[in-house]
Amino acid sequence: MATQNTKTLARLMMAPSVIALLVWMVIPLSMTLYYSFQNYNLLTPQNVSFGGFFNYQYFYTDPAFFTAIWNTLILVVGVLAITVIGGIAIGLLLDQPIFGQGIVRILVISPFFVMPPVAALIWKNMIMHPSYGVLADIAKFFGLQPVDWFAQYPLFSVIVIVAWQWLPFATLILLTALQSLDGEQKEAAEMDGANFVNRFIYLTLPHLSRAITVVILIQTIFLLGIYAEILVTTNGGPGYASTNLTFLIYRTARLGYDVGGGAAGGIIAVVLANIVAIFLMRAVGKNLDK
Amino acid sequence: MGSITLKNVQKHFGEAKVIPSVDLEITDGEFVVFVGPSGSGKSTLLRLIAGLEDVTGGTITIDGKDVTEAAPAARGLAMVFQSYALYPHMSVRKNIAFPLKMAKMEQSKIDKKVEDAARILNLSDYLERRPGQLSGGQRQRVAIGRAIVREPSAFLFDEPLSNLDAALRGTMRLEISDLHNQLKTTMIYVTHDQIEAMTMADKIVVLNRGNIEQVGSPMELYNTPRNLFVAGFIGSPRMNLIEGEYAQSKGAKTAGIRPEHMTLSKESGLWKGTVSVAEHLGADTFLHLDVDGIGKMTARASGEFGAHHGDTVYLTPDETRLHRFDDKGLRIAG
User: Fold this and answer.
1) What is the helix (H) or strand (E) element at residue A269, kind and residue range?
2) Which end of chain B lies in a sparser environment, N or C, as judged by fewer CB atoms within 10 Å?
3) Global pTM exceeds 0.80
4) How does pLDDT run across B39-67, given as a tens digit for each residue?
5) Cα separations (Å) of B10 from A126, B3, B21, B157, B239?
6) What angle do CA B21, B26, B27 make, to 5 degrees?
């Protein structure tokens, strides 16, 4: 890839995919941008007119707006905390030589293969259901009042379901990072008198920092857009207790038939996501350029 | 203090008896080299002493204390690994200070010890760098620095020079020997390179398939190898081992003669050979020959010897330097 010739050729060969990706990104974005400035409601599709910033104002003054942002934040941070800590813990366990290691690893990874709505349905009807869920059975066994998870702790329940789905991903990335830790370094630390906790703090964690960064960055991108789990389980409720930004946009656009309002919400979400991305890249991204 | 005694030490990995049984005595202040081909169990033996592997049987005593079951850190030993095993995210200073920090030493004391170690090892200018920014030789010195600040009763080196290039290896060899002269601490050094063994050791332990073949000073091993294995392993180029008529005439199954203990001549001699490869080093000349009735032999002449591929050269062994071995491969005395 050194000569001028190969560079030109490489650019030429890459052009179709770059153009396709650009079109893919630019057209929906500009259409959304366009609609966000239109008064466009599907109940009165004949009355489309330029609305200026009305849609933005409307979305911003929605009483659910700040609740939704707050919920989005809690959802992302909560899932990240559970998956990173849990991923490291499970990774450490799976890194030990155990009987049936291959099967155990596949079992641990399997939740990642379950589609979000399916996972949410299973959790809703078979695990967290107040009358015939597994958790209810356990509560009854101990003579306790079963918890109605989705009514009492809606956001927490959603976090648990999403964390369950993303734990395998975090585990997988962190496990491979753990396996790449040099055995002689561990032995050197052992000879230097570091016990398990010190080895973890001074050797394992710094070694994992890059993998943790990758997990946080990738998961944040997907967690900002969590939607199916909420739709299937709580439908954003009770009230707005488990409505995140994505779900609020859905609510506005599809339940309120307000295309303009939904588009404005989408643009706000894009801007917020970019702010989060910049913040994240600043905070943890420096781990990547070593 | 650093005397180490191994008594009937065994190590099995499943069915494989890597070390069947080893007895060894290492006295305080000695520089002991474990040497042997790969798979001879030399590294395993070192790791058993370090406590990084559990023994299957036998006892290990350090300074009269039974440490067979003790944790690595409790044995008071320091180890330098083949890959250096530096902590990549810590500066050189923090790397060297790590064992002291783990021992919960006062910060002011730690600083002083790190500075001292850095001065001994010429690392003072590099203390704030990361291992990734250092050359191979500097990394090696940091690893040694991390070992000496602990003031261990013995140092363990696991093939520490095998990742360095030839020139640097020569320098580091000297530095480690120097360090031993300064510190006068027991050192156990594992290598497959018999030149490192010969140049550095007070005592060489030759290992083969987990058994000790011979223990002795470099010159003892060179002059009186106990068996064929040691004879072939110690010395470079290898000793010529001759079977057949000539050996029988000397009352042995195998006769051994080192390349440097033969006189070369272009006119006459006991054996007649054809040069296949001649290596001219200036100070020495190595001739690889096909000798009539014996086969391939190597001969060494001091200085330049003007022979080339295809030339005929006569060899005469110095019979006072002849080694004789019986049919079990053991040395015949006298």
Assistant:
1) helix A259-284
2) C
3) no
4) 888 999 999 999 998 899 899 999 888 99
5) 56, 20, 5, 21, 32
6) 155
Give the pLDDT of residue A248.
86
Identify how many contiguous H helices and E strands chain A contains and give both numbers: 14, 2
Phi and psi based region of residue A178 (left: phi greater than 0; alpha: psi -120 to 50; beta: remaining): alpha
Q: Is the confidence at residue A287, as pLDDT, over 90?
A: no
Helix (H) or strand (E) holding A92: helix A65-94
Residue ranges per structural domain of chain A: 64-287
Architecture of domain B4-230: 3-Layer(aba) Sandwich (3.40)
- Residues 180-209 of chain A with CB under 8 A from chain B are 182, 184-185, 187-194, 198, 202-203, 206-207, 209
Q: pLDDT tens across B146-184, in order? A: 998 988 899 999 988 888 888 888 888 998 999 899 889
Run of H or E residues at B23: strand B16-26
Query: Which residues of chain B does A188 touch, with a Cβ-Cβ cutoff of 8 Å?
Result: 79, 81, 85-87, 146
* Residue B68: C-alpha distances to residues B61, B72, B76 (Å): 7, 10, 13
The dihedral over CA atoms of A169, A172, A176, A178, expressed in degrees to the nearest 10, equals: 100
Q: Please say if the pLDDT value at position A51 is more than 80.
A: no
Task: Find out whether B274 and B252 touch, Cβ atoms under 8 Å.
Answer: no
How does pLDDT run across B257-276, given as a tens digit for each residue?
Answer: 999 999 998 888 889 999 99
Structure tokens at B206: 């030759």
Q: Which fold has domain A64-287?
A: MetI-like fold (1.10.3720)
Q: Which residues contact B122 (CB under 8 A, 6 or more apart)?
A: B141
Q: At A163, is the secondary structure helix, strand, or coil?
A: helix
pLDDT one-digit tens code per residue, B270-309: 899 999 999 999 899 999 999 988 889 999 998 888 888 9
- For A6, phi then psi, to 5°, come to -65, -30
- Residue B333 C-alpha, separation from nearest chain A C-alpha, in angstroms: 44
Residues 6+ apart with CB under 8 A from B300: B237, B258, B259, B260, B262, B284, B285, B286, B287
The fold for domain B239-325 equals OB fold (Dihydrolipoamide Acetyltransferase, E2P) (2.40.50)
Residue range A119-140: mean pLDDT, rounded: 86
- Apex B18 CA angle, B13 and B22, nearest 5: 125
- Give me chain B's average pLDDT, please: 90
CB contact under 8 A, B87 and A202: yes
Name B284's bridge partners. B302
Confidence of residue B334 (pLDDT cuts 50, 70, 90): low
Q: Do B50 and A203 touch (CB under 8 A)?
A: no
Substitution target from B52, B62, B146 for chain A, most A beta carbons within 10 A? B52
CA B218 – CA B222 distance, rounded (Å): 6
pLDDT at A285: 66
Q: Is the complex ipTM higher than 0.90?
A: no
Q: What is the mean pLDDT of residues A210-215?
A: 88
Q: A1 — contact with chain B (CB < 8 Å)?
A: no
| Structural domain boundaries in chain B | 4-230, 239-325
